[in-house]
Amino acid sequence: METALAASITNLNSSSSVIKRHHLYPCYTSINSQKSPKFNYRYKKSIYFLTSCSTKPDTNKDNVTDPNSIDNPSLNSNLQNSPVPTSTQALSSVNSSFSRGLVFDLGQKNAWDCAEVGSPVVRRFLSDEEERWYMWYHGSSSKIPGSDYIGLAVSSNGIHWERGGGAVQSSVDVGLVMNCSKDWWAFDTQGIRPGEVVVMSSSKIRANSAVYWLYYTGFSSEEAEVSDALLKFRLENPERLRICFGEGSENCGIGKIYKSLPGLAMSQDGRHWARIEGEHHSGALFDVGSDGEWDSLCIASPQVVFHKSGDLRMYYHSFDLKKGHFAVGMARSRDGMRWVKLGKIIGGGGNGCFNELGAVNAQVVKNKKDGTYVMAYEGVAADGERSIGLAVSTDGLKDWRIQDSPVLKWSEEDGWDDKGVGSPCLVEMDGEEDEWKLYYRGTGKAGQIGIGMAVSSGSDITSFKRCQGFHL
Q1: Alpha helix locations (H) across 324-405?
Q2: Burial label, 436 (beta-carbon count in 10 A; 0-12, 13-18, 19+)
Q3: CA–CA separation, 285 vs 347, rounded Å?
Q4: Which spans in 17-89 are helix H?
Q5: How far is it, in rounded angstroms, from Cα 49 to Cα 213?
Q6: Cβ–Cβ under 8 Å, residues 148 and 193
Q7: Which parts of this chain are annotated as the region Disordered (predicted)?
Q8: Is 86 exposed, middle or buried, given 0-12, 13-18 or 19+ CB atoms closer than 10 A?
Q9: What angle do CA 202, 427, 467 make, to 5 degrees?
Q10: pLDDT digits (tens, 9 = 90+) for 137-155
């Protein structure tokens, strides 16, 4: 089984590095290279574009079209005509047949995601005949330690999910969909985690339907050099914050901090991905900040919001070495590929606050009812506890109003997530359901790891309650 899993991951790497060639045709159209950003699939022999032009009316040479429109006929057609995936696995129980809020457990033994799951990116698609839920997430296997991969699960209601234990083989499968890069020069050879999936069309991408844009964190084997011995906690990237206290605290120092950068991949089915080379020499979209800047250590959890045509915003986090806390910053783009940093927007909270050591894994959505921007983020307390906080801005750029208390804390009733919660993903429900769903990664004191869901009280997003009644 171990050999089979390794083989499936190896096969996926070769197939997901570019969109399959039978979907691609040579591009003979006239493109002004002076105005167009560098747009290369990581395929060195030739460059291919997706077939046919977008017919969306709000498209021009420099801008992308609104990805939030449910009325996109090509997208709805794809959802209606795609068969429901059949590769399913039952959720396993965590010490009982009932766990409040848990909707997605670890994969079965020897599956690609049997050791860890997290970073949920959940999207709900509506058509005239059905609703379809997609969840991209990262996972890792105990058989291949030290690497994270990206997988896809699907659902008809956002509660019961169908998943696969190996690599996808077709456009209707579920399971492992993206592997680490095998190119020695790339920024994502050590691990990958999803940050955001945006569905949109662009004149830069010639496709007969909307395209999935996956923004993700890529980790390389390059370690950042940090010599600040005054830090009171063990800092690692991917972030695993361990506070130093009690016996053995004298041995606490700086752990391995792998360099991470933001990347972009595209797909026509959400399963087979083509990496897009950014302007950085490693293929990333942009680099860390210069020495002394707040984001000089790493760039992690890129999450992108479509504001309007020609205006996309990316939110990401890093660790501010000068301030000694995590922070969220942002960048802006006209085409989703070339980005300009705008600086830090949220840092650490006050003494004793749930976010005293800052914010990570932020997710921003635009409230459809009042037009404000809502940020859910993972707050880091001084004792290392993780909970989910909320901030609101009228324009998504500045003046973020941070709620004093977390909207979701770890379970205090010996639940599966009684150690910490984080990596939030908000979904605003359409239609008759006037509520928000909050997906999150939870961890337990006994070592449990899973993805949970909580629901707001109507349209009030200041607090969430874990859903009850899920029999696992």
Answers
A1: none
A2: buried
A3: 23
A4: 73-81
A5: 14
A6: yes
A7: 59-90
A8: exposed
A9: 155
A10: 999 988 777 789 999 999 9
Tokens of 124: 């709900």
Alpha carbon distance 333, 31 (integer Å): 20
Say which residues have a Cβ less than 8 Å from residue 237's Cβ, sequence separation at least 6: 219, 224, 256, 257, 258, 259, 260, 297, 298, 300, 319
Residue 384 is predicted with a pLDDT of 84
Largest CA distance in the chain: 67
Helix (H) or strand (E) holding 428: strand 420-428
What is the C-alpha R_g of the chain?
Answer: 21
Q: Report the C-alpha gap between 430 and 432 in whole angstroms.
A: 7
375 contacts 362 by C-beta, under 8 angstroms: yes
Distances (CA, A) of 7 to 166, 298, 437: 10, 31, 37
Contact call for residues 302 and 215 (beta carbons, < 8 A) = yes
Would you state the structure tokens that stand for residue 255, as one six-digit string? 């752990």
SS3 state of residue 59: coil
Q: How far apart are CA 338 and CA 334, in angstroms?
A: 7
Q: Which token pair is 147?
A: 């690497």
Residue 21 DSSP class = G
Task: Tell me how crowded residue 295 is: count the other CB atoms within 10 A of its CB.
Answer: 24
236 and 224 in contact (C-beta within 8 Å)?
no
Name which of 279, 242, 246 is nearest 261 in CA terms.
Answer: 279
pLDDT at residue 20, as a whole number: 32
pLDDT of residue 259: 93
Alpha carbon 95 to its chain's center: 29
pLDDT tens-place string over residues 270-280? 999 999 999 99
Residue 157 or residue 12, greater confidence: 157
Residue among 361, 391, 362, 360 at smallest CA distance from 374: 391
Q: Which residues, 6+ apart, have CB-to-CB distance to 412 below 8 Å?
A: 418
